[in-house]
Amino acid sequence: MSSSHKPAIHVAWKTVTYRSVALGVLFLMSVFSAGLYFAFPQLTQNGIKSVTSLTGKLMERFASSGAPVKANSMNSQQAHITALDGTVRVKKASSNSWVNADYNVPLEKGDVVQTGSEGMAKIVFGDGTNYTVKQDSLIVIEENSANEQQQTSVAIAVSTGTVDLATATYMQGSKSQVIVAGATASLAPNSAAMVHNDPNGDRHEIMVTKGTGDVARNGASGRLSAGVIPGGLAADGEDPGDWTADADCSGEHDADFQLRRIEDGGVFLDADG
Question: Which of 99, 124, 140, 259 could form an S-S bond across to 157 if both were Cys, CB 3.0 to 4.6 Å?
């Protein structure tokens, strides 16, 4: 007597890990992106630039959002690096050792930032001011704090090299300053400047490219404006007046001040000032 077999359902299981799924999706996205690039190269490049720009803006917003401060105090704040290229090093105020800069290294008062021959770093502070440190440059964070009214104080000393800076719309009473060769330039909100310091070549320059700024050195002060030949340099509290200095008459009014007006919106600093 032949035995009868009942029909049965056979189920086969195959284990698929999340890693395998992720790698598969990544591979398909890579193939799709490559095909899209070859088919529409210009459109793809524009999309990449847009995403990069959006990422940078989000990082800057995060960097400029300072922590709340306590009443009746000036609390130190942190600045953050939002762009890096080439060799950039940081020496913390609490250390004698240099470390490679990265986006996770916060910058505080007393920290030093140095760029190499092909290095560049963009630093954003709590007041929204950003500094682009060019190659072969060294800067020191002299001040970075805020008080209970959210008034901020930021000061950077450019020891050597070139720095481009741009201020934001910060609160009245706040200060954003850059120091070079003993001169302190205080930039107004929504202003920009280029600062160059070459101690070996004895060349020191402050150039306002947007907005206005006040520069002071050895008890004297003056106003700098973008696109305007600086006038009104005063020493020892003297009224600067409203005269205008020509590019070829530098030194006529500033023997005591030791700031030579050379070109629109900028000054060169005499070595003996």
Answer: 140
The answer to which of 15-24, 188-197, 201-210 has the lowest mean pLDDT is: 15-24
Shared-domain flag, residues 78 and 210: yes
Distance of CA 184 to the CA centre of its chain: 18
Report residue 154 CA to chain centroid gap: 12
- CA atoms of 124 and 95, how far apart (whole Å): 22
Q: Is the pLDDT of residue 89 over 90?
A: yes
- Residue 19: pLDDT over 90: no
Q: What pTM value is reported for the model?
A: 0.61
Residue 7: its pLDDT value, please?
Answer: 61
The domain of 41 spans 18-63
- Can you tell me the distance from the alpha carbon of 144 to that of 126, in angstroms, rounded to the nearest whole number? 8
d(C-alpha 53, C-alpha 36), whole Å: 21
Q: Which pLDDT tens digit goes with each residue over 56-74? A: 666 656 555 544 444 445 5
| CATH number of the domain that residue 102 is part of | 2.60.120.1440
Counting the structural domains of the chain, the total is: 2
Write the burial class of residue 53 (CB in 10 Å: 0-12 exposed, 13-18 middle, 19+ buried). exposed
Answer yes or no: is pLDDT of 129 > 80: yes
For residues 82 and 122, the answer to whether their CB atoms sit within 8 Å is: yes
Token duo for residue 32: 């799709």
